[in-house]
Amino acid sequence: MSEHQHGADCGCGEDHEHEEQVLIVTDDEGQEREMVMVYTFESDNNVYAVLLDRNDPEADGVIFRIQEENDESFLVGIEDDAEWDRVTAIYEEIARTENEEN
Q: Of 34, 71, 100, 102, which alpha carbon lies 20 to 30 A from 28's?
């Protein structure tokens, strides 16, 4: 999986067709939400995905670990506080850097 997930507003400058990757995620209250994968990054031999609510793009993104089993990928919630603190800090730095470049 690449470090940068191309999306409708990725701003990468490459001439390619953008495709939105939509996933259905069930929240803690059992409500299904359409989420769009907007970014992936790696840390400590794991890959993480940042998803935004397709119907509320101004809402905060959600970060999941991508786990692979038998050639299939699954989104896994991050329950370890130390892992969560580490990956949110990494993503905040990535977002800050990208915002400075734009």
A: 71
Q: What gap in Å lies between CA 50 and CA 63, rounded to an integer?
A: 5
Residue 64's Cα: distance from chain center in Å?
7
Instruction: Encode 28-43: b = buried (16+ Cβ within 10 Å), e = exposed.
Output: eeeeebebbbbbbbee
The span from the CA of 60 to the CA of 25, in Å, is: 15
Cα–Cα nearest to 41, from 102, 99, 100, 86 = 86
- Ranges of residues in the chain with a pLDDT under 70 are 1-19, 102
Spell out where the chain has E strands. Answer: 22-26, 32-43, 46-53, 62-69, 72-76
pLDDT reported for residue 19: 65
